Task: inverse folding
C-alpha cells in the first residue's frame, strides 16, 4: 500500500491520496472519482480565494464609482468644482441635516475626490479631480466602442435614405398602365 499524502488547503487536510487515481476523504472515507476530486479542489480553492479577498479594501476605481453613484454626492462635487466650501455652505441647496452631508463628504474623502482643509475655525472641502481622470481613462475604450457603433449606424441610415430616394426616383418615370388603379 502506498503512503497517504494529505493535501492542505485553508489550513485543514481535506484529501488523502492513496494512489494516482484513488482519492479518499480522511474524515468520511469517501472515495472520489478524479473528476469529482477536481471539482472539490476547485471549490475549496475558490472558497480560499474569496476568504482572502480584501472585501472592505476596495480598489480606488471602485471607491470612486461608489461615491459617484449617489446624486447628492455628484451635486456636492459639482458645487466644489466652482470653489472650496465648508459643510454649512454645502448644506444650503439640500434639505439634509449636517450629519447627513458630513457622511456624504466622508464617502467622497475616502474615494479621494475631496480633501478637507483648515482655515482657522473653518474646514473647507476642496475637489480633487485625479480620481475623475482615472474614471475617464477607464471609460475611454468604451467611448471608442460606442463611437464606432454610432459611425456604423450613421452609415446604415444614410444607405437606407439613399435606397428610399432611389425608389422614389424610379417611380416618377413610370407611366400608368391600363391595369393600374392608383
Result:
Amino acid at each position: 500500500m502506498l503512503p497517504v499524502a494529505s493535501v492542505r488547503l485553508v489550513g485543514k487536510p481535506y484529501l488523502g491520496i492513496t494512489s494516482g487515481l484513488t482519492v479518499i476523504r480522511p474524515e468520511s472515507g469517501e472515495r472520489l472519482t478524479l473528476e469529482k476530486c477536481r471539482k472539490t479542489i476547485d471549490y475549496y480553492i475558490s472558497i480560499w480565494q474569496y476568504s482572502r479577498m480584501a472585501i472592505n479594501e476596495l480598489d480606488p476605481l471602485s471607491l470612486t464609482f461608489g461615491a459617484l453613484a449617489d446624486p447628492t454626492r455628484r451635486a456636492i462635487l459639482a458645487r466644489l468644482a466652482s470653489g472650496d466650501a465648508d459643510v454649512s455652505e454645502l448644506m444650503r441647496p439640500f434639505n439634509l441635516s449636517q450629519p447627513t452631508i458630513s457622511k456624504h463628504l466622508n464617502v467622497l474623502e475616502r474615494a479621494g475626490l475631496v480633501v478637507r482643509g483648515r482655515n482657522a475655525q473653518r474646514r473647507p472641502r476642496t475637489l480633487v479631480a485625479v480620481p475623475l481622470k482615472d474614471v475617464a481613462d477607464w471609460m475611454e475604450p468604451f467611448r471608442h466602442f460606442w463611437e464606432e457603433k454610432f459611425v456604423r449606424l450613421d452609415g446604415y441610415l444614410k444607405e437606407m435614405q439613399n435606397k428610399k430616394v432611389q425608389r422614389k426616383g424610379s417611380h416618377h418615370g413610370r407611366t400608368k398602365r391600363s391595369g393600374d388603379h392608383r
About this structure: Residues 73 and 100 are 11 Å apart (CA to CA). Residues 1-20 have pLDDT under 50 and may be disordered.
